[in-house]
Amino acid sequence: MSVAALIQQSHDDKEAWRYTSLADFAAQAWGAPTVAAMPELPAPLTRHRLVIVDGVFRDDLSARQELPNEFFDRCEEKDNCYALTLWNRTCLAIDPIEVLFVNTHQVAANEATTKIKIALGKSSRLTLIEQHVGLNGAASARLIEMDIELDAQAKLVHGKIVTGGQSSLHHARAMVRVAAGAFYDHFALVAGGKLVRCEKEVALVGEMAEARFSGVMLLRGSDHGDITTLVRHLAPHGISRQVCKTVLADKARGVFAGKVFVDQTAQKTDAYQLCRALLLSDQAEMDAKPELEIYADDVKCSHGTAIGDLDDKALFYLLSRGIDPDAARAMLVEAFVGELVDTIQSPDLADAVRDEVQKWLA
User: Fold this and answer.
1) Beta bridge partners of 144
2) Per-residue pLDDT tens for 91-105?
3) Domain of 140?
4) What is the tens place of the pLDDT at every residue in 123-163?
5) Using CA atoms, how far apart are residues 183 and 238, in angstroms rounded to an integer?
6) Domain assignment of residue 341, yes or no
7) Number of domains in the chain
8) Does residue 134 contact residue 164 with C-beta atoms inside 8 Å?
9) Looking at the chain, which terminus has fewer C-beta neighbours within 10 angstroms, N or C?
């Protein structure tokens, strides 16, 4: 999807974009990528690393190790489209795979649109970690599209880490289909960015399919973070969990729009969503929009929202024991988001997220 198409979509569906404006995307002057010496990349998170620079896969910078070429290769349909496939066979990928998205252009923002297709066959297992970074203060517009399909009994642990500065624009959309007995487990960390929007639409199409989404946003300055989710329960005995925690300082703004749709055939659905936010400034803003649309009569669905400041009693307790005020606030913020971080199933992803949380607190 191009920037123009994205902007047109926001005009056509104003309700879905009520709290997030694409004015920064529309006003951005775009430039073509320049050929430059590649700066030093961040340290790898895992043994297997696939590197995409300015929207283009770089095999020379990647570390495939023993992964076969057909495991990750170009799609035939268009440029900057890649397929990651564990299909037609049962495969357990023990080591996580990191996909590093790097933006390097420094003169004008580079409009880099990348599409990745992920297909897991029956009973396959995979842990995938996305990391999005801009090097040398690069201005960037990252447009990422993902199509994910999980066959019966497959499991995908999918992590995403977005770190950006005041010039970073990021829009990502993922379409996920979960077959019978399969499990999609997603954790997203958004640590800054001029405008970051992560959209995810999950369809539980098979009986006893399960999806879990956990999101943490750490925003300060004039950052704007938006997590928008839609979970469609289309078969009986489906389970979904959505939990988003946001910390906002200065004039930052956070958005969580989570919707659960339950089809009339999806009896025995168990769906839950929760949004919690800490406002560390009187000028910070959090917009929460949970939705339930239910057409079945034998379900257990609920949602909740809580937005407020740090707990005064907890802060006083720490201060009364001689802890510095800034350190005390940092401890409470870390505990607030740490509750979600502790649920991450991949140790590599959990360590990477904790490192980014510490950087933000520092």
Assistant:
1) 114, 172
2) 555 688 999 988 776
3) 3-310
4) 888 999 999 987 765 556 778 899 999 999 999 999 999 98
5) 10
6) no
7) 1
8) yes
9) C
